[in-house]
Amino acid sequence: MKLEKNTGLVLEGGGMRGVFTSGVLDAFMKHDYYFKYVIAVSAGACNAVSYMSRQPRRARYSNIDMLEKYDYISLKSLLLQGSIFDPNILYERFPKEIVPFDEDAYRQNPAVFEMVATNCLTGQAEYLSEKTDIERMTSIVRASSSLPYVAQITHVDGIPMLDGGIVDSIPVQRSINTGHPINVVVLTRNRGFRSTELEVKVPKLFYKDYPRLRVALSHHVEAYNEQLDMIERMEDWGEIVTIRPQRPLEVDRICRDTDKLERLYEEGFSEGERFCRQYQL
Hints:
Oligomer: single chain
Shape: globular
Number of helices: 11
């Protein structure tokens, strides 16, 4: 497949599996490989922010070095702050103090950047963008990566939202619908993976005020596996190019083992470099 200047970049989420994506994006930045349209979900959105501000290794520092130093994944954080990922460190101290976010570079980047979140009221995907108001952009990133059950609902424009991966884990169709028929899709699972989680009806004990969200959560596994089927068909038919881990992962969504995370990052960087050598925009 020959890529065009209008090629879209689609980034899957996956919690800490997203270190693979941060490696890919660092390789892209090393080779000055930038897309004019980027759409990302959950951890993919977190990593994409540093790609959009053109800050190499910033996402890697957040995912690996900072985890080792600050231990920001904990039950203590879940109990005290409502999220298993410490929101104060991730959304306040990190972008403002630890590795400051380059707001000017982000604003000046001409690329379109969309993030996917799940509207708790409708149970549908919301595709959100913000290039000027950094506080609103941060709220969107936080909403997109607010994992159900282990993170608080985040409000954007007054609307309660959770992780975009609940309903649209791999938003390649959104990219196509917005005028990008050719896409590069960065995945955080090896080819052939399908989720074997049990599909259960979410009881009213959880999210009692959001019945449509409960429906979406109850069908999440089926929806994700259908998207994986679609991705592999599109890949086989030459409709998309994928960058993905080549072997089954040893990293799960809430992994705290920095050695495993480092290996996955390095694999992502290697796959990203291989892609840059093979394709030109």
